[in-house]
Amino acid sequence: MRSFCPHGPCQTPARMRRVLIAAGIYHIPFAVAANCWPYPCFDLLHIAQPNHVLLWHAVGMAIGLMGVAFLFASRNPINSWGIVL
């Protein structure tokens, strides 16, 4: 689906791209850390460690997917409005 801009091709501000790239770069390492080393996250926050780590792995996977989606959306934020929103 193409975006409609009344004065020619849509231009996205550079800050939109920078923010989405920064969000993607932040989310991906957090997801790797949450999946590979789940307990230090809880120890750092002084929270009881969960009995079922699978739920924490699912959160890490969802956050990693969001990071990849943000990096994809940074290429063209106007056409990827569903991810950006």
Can you walk me through this structure?
There is one protein chain. The protein is mainly α. It has one domain (14-84). The protein is 65% helix and 0% strand. The protein has four helices and no strands. The protein has helices at 14-36, 38-44, 53-73, 81-84. α1 (14-36) runs antiparallel to α3. The radius of gyration is 17 Å and the shape is elongated.
Which terms summarize this structure?
single chain, elongated, mainly alpha, 85 residues, 0% strand
Quick recap of the structure?
The protein has 85 residues and is mainly α.
- Output the helix-strand order: HHHH
- The low-confidence parts are none
Shape: elongated
**End-to-end Cα distance:** 16 Å
Number of helices: 4
The secondary-structure class comes to mainly alpha
**Proportion of helical residues:** 55-70%
How many domains is the backbone divided into?
A: 1
Mean pLDDT: 87
What amount of the residues lies in strands? under 5%
Gyration radius, to the nearest Å? 17 Å
Question: What summary fits the major beta sheet?
Answer: none
Number of strands: 0
Itemize the secondary structure elements and their pairings.
Layout: H1 14-36, H2 38-44, H3 53-73, H4 81-84
